Amino acid sequence: MTTSVFGTSVAQLSLQEDEGRGIKLLNAKEDRYGGVIVELEEAMEPNAFAASLKASMDHWRKQEKNGVWIQLPLKLSSLVDIAVQEGFRYHHAEPDYLMLACWLPSRPDTLPANASHRVGIGAFVINDHREVLVVQEKSGPFGGSGVWKFPTGVVDEGEDICDAAIREVKEETGIDAEFIEVLAFRQSHKGFFGKSDLLFVCMLKPLSSEIQKQDTEIEAAKWMPLDEYVNQPFILWDGDAATAG
């Protein structure tokens, strides 16, 4: 979680000129941890950016600032190499920007790391007939394996776990459901692009019964007797493929 980025103060470091050189410093906001955040929006020529960045870095060092964050929109991606040459590194990226970071003091770097986990859900939906809602996936680790599994998915940014479970069930099977409780969770490592993974298994009560499967991702969906579900062959996943055990 990038607390230094989002924990900004109201104070704004206004545009200044470097003494004796007439070089404009970059606009920056102070964060709550003794650092500054630069959010570039207007186009800049590479040479002008290089001069302003160098002068700004000297200015911030004199002010004994800690971390410097530069948020570069896609349209200014050509400036990345210039920032890297000044000591910046990649921190994280979103669809519309790249965040670069640089630690100024000589003491050890304490800038927070990028998000370390991805959060997912598995939906255990059971009806009054002791039937479990299950799906077969078209792709992914279980694609083509014949395995019947819970509807699963990734929690969206800003979405609660309970809402994600309801949404995934609706998207994959067309079933409306009500969240009851979290049954269990597990943590695993070295998952999606090397990130750790948290999966929450949620119990849901179905509010409808007619299945309308998602054609793009789901091969099949059905209500399966609970006893039949638990008696499936045990499945092992080695990170690349699913195999029956």
From TrEMBL:
InterPro entries registered for this protein in UniProt: Nudix_hydrolase (IPR020476), NUDIX_hydrolase-like_dom_sf (IPR015797), Nudix_hydrolase6-like (IPR003293), NUDIX_hydrolase_CS (IPR020084), NUDIX_hydrolase_dom (IPR000086), Pre-Nudix (IPR040618)
Keywords, alphabetical: Hydrolase, Metal-binding
Pfam families for this protein: NUDIX, Nudix_hydro
Family according to the record: Belongs to the Nudix hydrolase family.
The Nudix hydrolase domain, residue ranges: 116-245
Descriptive protein name: Nudix hydrolase domain-containing protein
Biological classification of the source: Eukaryota, Viridiplantae, Streptophyta, Embryophyta, Tracheophyta
This protein's record includes keyword rRNA-binding: no
Gene Ontology MF term list: ADP-ribose diphosphatase activity; metal ion binding; NAD binding; NADH pyrophosphatase activity
Organism listed in the record: Kalanchoe fedtschenkoi (Lavender scallops)
